[in-house]
Specification:
- The complex is a heterodimer of chains A (262) and B (597).
- Chain A folds into two domains: 107 residues, Ubiquitin-like (UB roll), CATH 3.10.20.740; 132 residues, no CATH class.
- In chain A, the strands form two sheets. In chain A, strands 2-1-5-3-4 form a five-stranded mixed β-sheet, with helices on both faces.
- Chain A is globular.
- Chain A is an alpha+beta fold.
- Chain A is 37% helix and 12% strand.
- In chain A, a hairpin with a 6-residue loop joins strand 6 and strand 7.
- Chain A starts with a strand and ends with a helix.
- In chain A, helix 2 runs antiparallel to helix 3.
- By secondary structure, chain B is α/β, with parallel strands linked by helices.
- Helix content of chain B is 39%, strand content 14%.
- In chain B, helix 6 crosses helix 13, helix 9 packs across helix 10 and helix 18 runs antiparallel to helix 19.
- The chains are: A alpha+beta (262), B alpha/beta (597).
- The interface between A and B is medium-sized, with 34 and 32 residues.
Chain lengths: 262, 597
């Protein structure tokens, strides 16, 4: 166990734990946008910046991916950390001024005026990457990706076409903090309209079951198979993302491997 | 090997090649044969000689006669006079600006005199496409020596030499090797050479690979042996076709000589190198993005730790150094740490290669000992500023570096001094700026580069650099307010503090240093709506001097807005209401009658 001080309070955390986890243990809230416990830290939104003082040197780090160290002193609301957080929030406000979660955070941090020009007032994606990452690392489908570079960066589908690998699980829409991804309805509709007698179940596409016919027209919530899996193992990607941490994701992948073998 | 009376070393670096140096070489060979001298005079194509400003160039050894700015039609005369009659041709030799007497020998020229060559020790002396010539210059002797040493001893030698990474950050190379050696791995380790040089105006790594590819390969083999890696990668950008070609040839030759592959020189050590070609994304010079790109993934940085020494390519420990660092390794092993550590300053040992560009007489590639002052580089080696203009600043470290003003010309060039001045060593670009450069505009230029090259992953770099560029544009167009300046400064500070990788962390440097040293220029743009260097056109007021105007009518004809009036033999006038400040009249006037107020 490692002991450190966060906002003046002493806390013990396991080796390898992040500052964010240690702070949560103390009930201290550090705001995040691109973080999810079921995914590897991405450290891209730069909202969770905290000030760390170590050997009399102070530096700003992201709480989501920085591991705790013995004797570390962390200030989650120091002036330096707050200034950094506010600037990044202001930049995100200029990018996506209508997004609820950003507006709420900005209000909380007392940001009243946006000093930067708003290019697209309708923009709703903040490029946190949750959809892309969950699709790759939890679902294993890689149906969503990023396209372009720098300020042109956007989320997309490979070659901007409806993805063949999408299983319409909807976990991307579930995780999206801003509602920018509304893919479930569209893709599920395509699934339903797919011609032929055999309409493949998403479990079959994921390689879990040799199940080839969906009787429920892809209303997975009503599906007996889906519910059965849920009872067993929380297998639906949404359940994994909702309840789990990284360990459960790997347990889930182990489970997938096992049933695929069977 | 056959020996000749004279050797003509034709520079075949990228700059000289684009100035037709291959044609010069053919003309030389043709003419030499015509005179029946082919058994006495050899023509050799070498890598970049360094003095790019006066290319295409030929150096005649053993005397070291330096010919510059050659044209094909000069060649018959040179061959006849120099090789047949023994009279070197004075008119094709180099004379310093403003002087009449030519300097015949290369080593007497100011540009070469103060240089100290280690990484570039073979430049201009060997044909980079022939391994034998590299070996004849003690090439691969360092490797042979290293293979008889214990890995621990090699690492100690590199540590003792004080060599620091030449890619920018200046991390101690020996320490990095040791960390990679100690890192646990279940399935191999890698060594990696970063040849993804992308700074505007920088061509150090390119020239090293073009002039002496084997020095990089030898460095990599030594490093791999010391670290315990059996596979190496060289990540080189595809826009460097000549470097790439020479590297491929060099690797093939090294393999044929048993210097790569199984059981190198009978030591039992196996190692080989693969080339990975980069598609030209600047961010791939950042090591975690580079490694992602090597794996075939999107070239995007990831947070560190874990550092690549533990978690690199395919999650295996990987030691990444840049071209110049690797090229220094063979000499250190061959001549010893003691020799190397005598050169340089207390904390920065050895030499550094810089590409000297911008408003400077001797554009080119220089290698100088650490601790040399900026003044020595710019005036003694670089030959000063053209057209007797005043020096204003030097931008070191490329788009991630900063502008150092004239007051700091006596600053010694080492890692610490440059970062204290707000700039950085970077990979070694040096852009010299004179009095005609607007510092706000130069900050805008570098920012436009970094914002374009940002990968877009983290908020401050993606959104922040875009907004910084927006504010800088506003200021250069004369629309900036004092509040904008305050916002710009605050934003630059936060982008530097909070960005994920080195690109974003250093992108604000040009803004921060120009604000630190040239704040008056920003204020002139904002408060007085005036660009002191007359670069920002939107702030210029164009006026026609009636005494100088010859009423030729050219400006009136070219003005896209019909803002210029005036008839025959009448001085012309600019209607300020109609003028859009495009500057065309200023550019076309042959009588310097259009002036800027």
């Amino acid at each position: 166990m490692i002991s450190l001080k966060i906002d003046g309070k002493l806390v013990k955390a396991e080796r390898g734990a992040t500052i964010l986890q240690a702070a949560q243990k103390l009930g201290l809230e550090i705001p995040t946008l691109c973080h999810h416990p079921a995914l590897e830290p991405y450290a891209a939104c730069r909202i969770c910046m905290v000030e760390v003082i170590k050997e009399r040197k102070s530096e700003l780090v992201t709480a989501c991916n920085t591991a705790v160290q013995q004797g570390m002193t962390v200030w989650t609301k120091s002036n330096r950390a707050l200034a950094a957080r506010k600037m990044n929030l202001e930049l995100l406000m200029a990018r996506a001024p209508k997004v609820k979660i950003i507006r709420a955070m900005a209000a909380e941090y007392g940001i009243k005026k946006i000093r930067f020009p708003v290019e697209n007032p309708e923009e709703d994606c903040i490029l946190c990457g949750l959809c892309v990452r969950v699709c790759e690392s939890v679902v294993g489908a890689s149906a969503i990706c990023f396209a372009n570079r720098g300020s042109d960066r956007t989320w997309s589908k490979p070659f901007d076409k409806a993805s063949d690998t999408c299983i319409a699980c909807g976990v991307c829409t579930y995780l999206c903090p801003t509602g920018a991804i509304q893919m479930e309805a569209e893709t599920a509709q395509q699934f339903r309209e797919r011609p032929g007698e055999h309409r493949e179940c998403r479990y079959s596409l994921m390689g879990i079951l040799p199940y080839a016919l969906c009787a429920n027209s892809f209303r997975c919530a009503q599906c007996e198979v889906d519910q059965r899996f849920r009872d067993h193992m929380d297998t639906h990607p949404i359940f994994v993302a909702r309840n789990c941490d990284l360990e459960s994701v790997s347990a889930y992948h182990e489970f997938l491997k096992r049933v695929r073998k069977e | 090997m056959k020996t000749y009376r004279s050797y003509c070393m034709v520079c075949a670096g990228t700059a000289c090649v684009s100035n037709r140096s291959f044609h010069i070489k053919e003309a030389l060979e043709r003419e030499i044969e015509k005179q029946g001298l082919q058994d006495e005079i050899a023509v050799v194509t070498t890598g970049c000689n360094g003095f790019c400003a006066v290319g295409p160039l030929v150096v005649v050894h053993p005397e070291g006669i330096f010919y510059q700015q050659l044209r094909e039609e000069d060649i018959p005369y040179v061959v006849e006079e120099h090789f047949l009659k023994g009279r070197p041709v004075k008119r094709l030799m180099y004379s310093p600006p403003g002087e009449q007497t030519p300097i015949p020998k290369m080593n007497d020229i100011g540009f070469f005199k103060q240089q100290r060559l280690i990484a570039l020790r073979n430049r201009g002396l060997i044909d980079p496409e022939r391994i034998d010539e590299y070996i004849a210059r003690d090439g691969y002797f360092g490797l042979a020596k290293a293979l008889k040493m214990k890995p621990r001893e090699i690492i100690q030698e590199i540590k003792d030499s004080g060599l620091r990474g030449r890619g920018g950050a200046g991390f101690l190379t020996g320490l990095k090797w040791e960390l990679t050696r100690k890192a646990k791995s279940n399935g191999g380790k890698f060594v990696l050479c970063n040849a993804d040089e992308g700074d505007p105006g920088a061509f150090m790594d390119r020239s090293i690979v073009e002039a002496d590819p084997h020095s990089v390969i030898e460095g990599l083999i030594i490093g791999a042996y010391a670290i315990g890696a059996n596979q190496g990668y060289i990540y080189i950008r595809n826009e460097y076709p000549l470097a790439l070609k020479r590297l491929i040839i060099a690797l093939e030759q090294a393999r044929n000589y048993g210097l790569l592959g199984k059981d190198i020189l009978g030591s039992g050590f196996d190692f080989d190198i693969k080339i990975v070609r980069g598609a030209g994304a600047f961010v791939c010079g950042e090591e975690t993005a580079l490694m992602a790109s090597v794996e075939g993934r999107l070239g995007e940085p990831r947070p560190r730790p874990p550092f690549p020494t533990e978690h690199g390519i395919w999650s295996k420990p990987t030691n990444n150094n840049n071209v110049e660092t690797w090229a220094n390794v063979p000499s250190i092993i061959r001549r010893g740490a003691q020799w190397y550590s005598q050169i340089g300053t207390e904390t920065s040992k050895g030499t550094k290669v810089f590409s000297l560009v911008g408003k400077i007489n001797n554009t080119g590639l220089v290698e100088v000992p650490m601790g040399i002052t900026l003044r020595e580089i710019i005036y003694d080696i670089g030959g000063g500023i053209p057209h007797e203009k005043a020096f204003k600043a030097v931008q070191t470290g490329g788009p991630s570096g900063g502008c150092i003003p004239a007051e700091l010309l006596d600053l010694p060039v080492d890692y610490e001094s440059l970062s204290e001045a707000g700039s950085m060593m970077g990979s070694g670009g040096m852009v010299v700026l004179d009095e005609d450069t607007c510092m706000v505009d130069i900050a805008r230029y570098f920012l436009s580069f970094t914002q374009d090259e940002s990968c877009g992953k983290c908020t401050p770099c993606r959104e922040g650099t875009k907004m910084m560029l927006h504010l800088l544009k506003k200021i250069t167009e004369g629309k900036g307010t004092e509040e904008d300046l305050e916002t710009l400064e605050q934003l630059a500070h936060e982008v530097k503090e909070t960005s994920l990788c080195g690109l974003g962390k250093t992108a604000p440097n040009p803004v921060l240093t120009t604000l630190r040293y040239f704040r008056d220029e920003y204020e002139a743009h904002i408060k007085e709506k005036r660009c002191p260097a007359h670069v920002c056109r939107q702030l210029n007021t164009y006026r026609i001097d009636p005494d100088a105007c010859t009423a030729c009518g050219l400006c009136r004809k070219e003005c896209p807005e019909d803002a210029i009036s005036g008839g025959k033999k009448q001085p012309h006038l600019i209607d300020q209401q109609k003028c859009v400040k495009c500057g065309i009249c200023f550019d076309v006037c042959k009588f310097e009658a259009v002036c800027i107020d």
